Amino acid sequence: MQEKKQVKSIPRKGDDLSEWYTQVCLRAQLVDYTPVRGCIALRPYGFALWELIQAEFDKRFKATGHHNAYFPLLIPESLLIKEAEHVEGFAPEVAWVTQGGGEELTERLAIRPTSEAIIGTMYSRWIQSHRDLPVLINQWCNVVRWEKATRPFLRTLEFLWQEGHTVHASEAEAAEEVQRMLEIYREVAEDVLAMPVIKGRKSENERFAGAVATYAIEALMPDGKALQAGTSHEFGQNFSKAYDIKFTDVDEQVKFGYTTSWGVSWRIIGGLIMTHGDDRGLVLPPAVAPYQVAIVPIMKTGDETVMPAAVQLRNTLASVVRVTLDDREQSPGWKFSEWEMRGVPLRVEIGPRDVAQNVVTVVRRDTLEKSTIPFDDVAARVPALLEEIRASLAARARKELDAHTVVATDRAAFVEALKRQDGFVLAPWCERSECELDIKAETSAVTRVIAGPADPGQVCAYCGKPAKVKAYFARSY
Amino acid sequence: MQEKKQVKSIPRKGDDLSEWYTQVCLRAQLVDYTPVRGCIALRPYGFALWELIQAEFDKRFKATGHHNAYFPLLIPESLLIKEAEHVEGFAPEVAWVTQGGGEELTERLAIRPTSEAIIGTMYSRWIQSHRDLPVLINQWCNVVRWEKATRPFLRTLEFLWQEGHTVHASEAEAAEEVQRMLEIYREVAEDVLAMPVIKGRKSENERFAGAVATYAIEALMPDGKALQAGTSHEFGQNFSKAYDIKFTDVDEQVKFGYTTSWGVSWRIIGGLIMTHGDDRGLVLPPAVAPYQVAIVPIMKTGDETVMPAAVQLRNTLASVVRVTLDDREQSPGWKFSEWEMRGVPLRVEIGPRDVAQNVVTVVRRDTLEKSTIPFDDVAARVPALLEEIRASLAARARKELDAHTVVATDRAAFVEALKRQDGFVLAPWCERSECELDIKAETSAVTRVIAGPADPGQVCAYCGKPAKVKAYFARSY
User: Strand order of the sheet with strand B405-407?
Assistant: First the structure.
């Protein structure tokens, strides 16, 4: 019965991306739905993937001087409302605790939708002098936002993320920090997850509640929609004034600090599933694959050579990659399908003939190419193959992104391109919020990021007023 | 001003343990109080300590076949109430979400006080066959219990912990798992944290709500009170029946699984603070010290030899230990006090005379002993010194535990020993709940763990009825 369940095919990725996505999430055993509305369970395979992604970010945060810490889950309403724009942005999405220890509370407690309010409050106690700056703290935690429609990883009521919160003595240092972290997000997305992104500033409509400027990385999904995969915010002195984050500067003057925050969530997993997956299921970038290699022994009745060789192979590989030896009782064919569904970058098959010839058969998940490798070369060859897979996934995804990015400078081409719903449209833009809302009403697309200033004399591709910037437009998740 | 704050003395540990403890938690910058009732912020130094403790547990969980996963924070009331004893035990401590997305919810959602209910619900979906067993999953997460009195680490509304949840085909395998994890808890407490514990089964009064049997490790604090530092529970089929966790066995019969859970929280940090700390502040066991070595350069005006030597020392040590070079502008004396307060196991001082003689001065935090080491021997000598510190802390704490554990076999000695409130009293006991409640009423002490069966013919030290077991009694945190 288990065998049947696994073999049942999933929709083709090109036929029904949405159903394909859901099926891959479930069948690869990354997640499961739960009886808690909008909340998923991250199963061991999904959590292992998340742990590896976390580790890639975390080591880069630490290398740039950041420290992890932990702040309370529950935020009293009176703290949350101190920054007016911030609370206005988040209030509709808040889950409220109103009862505790058998009693009605006198003040509602928000489950953190993000932690600027509580962290700002603590920073006002911890920072007195310029010597205390910069404060560079990150928190890995769960947050809750009361979303209506939900999808595994992409949008869930509760999600896991990291939120960095920093305080600086000057606006310039804060601006530098925001770019530094955005660049780390780009680096992990592109170099580790092999998922190309565009990077830039958000429009006024799209920026974080309470921010002076929001920057983001955005990936392009196969249905032509953008996926925001990481954001980095400059707050100016908005939050330091709201939460009283002051310091005595070198010149003995008491000043408000400049704060930033930046976050990446498990949403990025949704991005890599859609970017790399295929009709057989998940395709994982090697750097974050819980198993980089799955060894499938092909046993014939009476043969006693295969298992010892497979065990030796596993032991050899274990020192260079994350490897599993699949010694379950199911058939090799069933195992092939399962490890393909679960996206393991390399499958190594070993049967009696391979043992006799002192070779193994290696199958790449990304191309499904088979090759034969001498047994003694495996430990040297496998890491190189994993690197080839990473490079190949990155190149393929980059090609897709480029192929689905068009430039439009006049209204007809701009509207037509957006209505095709086929990716990014890069266009000169006036930067007016009203113009963006008009574009959205007509095409369902908005700006994703602002790439830079417009060329001299350019006019807005949509409204014809003078263009200030070049912006990427697309529909989005 | 900062200098003044740091130098201000804390109460002596022997004079006022409670105030000493609070001051050490704050002054060592492990935690801070927050405006959220009963909730603390874990500051970077405290979080780094927690991360190192987590890593010690986590690698042992993984080595014994467990995988991490993540389940929802919010648990619908209808799920929580399925196991009657369980909900009765936890209901008074639950924080309830009653509003979300601007609306009153039709069903209250509990913030998890522990996750048996939601994990059991998911397991009933994931387990069909004996081939799916055992399921060995662990979760690192936050939980909320609505406590009245709170203390940093020891008792807080929200705390960080891990909870392992496993399912087995037989009672014997479940029992084995419970002991295996308890032994891992003992090993980390004693061998890594240098904190000796007693280990055993809990009495009926003291066991987890819904468990068939609870086992625990308990450490002894300097005020003679026991601190429960880890628990491991056998649930029999209670939870599998409540949450419908069934499997088809080899014999084709459908059976209920046997479940377990086991947990350790950041409370164990409270234990190690009280166990090892002294009048100068925190004393950290080397294995989990965020910095194992602090280098304090002693600069004289005009000297240009010390800083380069200190940097070289830092670079040399960085490959073998976690080291920080304190190049701040404060005086060496201020830095000595600060690193003592923060419990760094070894301080390395280097001044112009040291540089001239090609030596450094090393000060052990545990004994405050100074020694001089040739510069070139530092990388070899420091790890050995750290191991000496671990062994010495463990031996000292073991001696304390032994010195404060007495055996009592008759009522007068038993009651007198418990009223002295000076540690563990090991005594033959009848194992009756009524007897334990009487003992509590008279002495404030209860059983901490049951060590084993009574000797033949022994009677209960308190009530004189036939003794079934030998139990450790003490007051507790």
Answer: B67-68, B135-144, B158-168, B258-265, B226-234, B213-220, B197-201, B446-453, B469-474, B424-429, B405-407
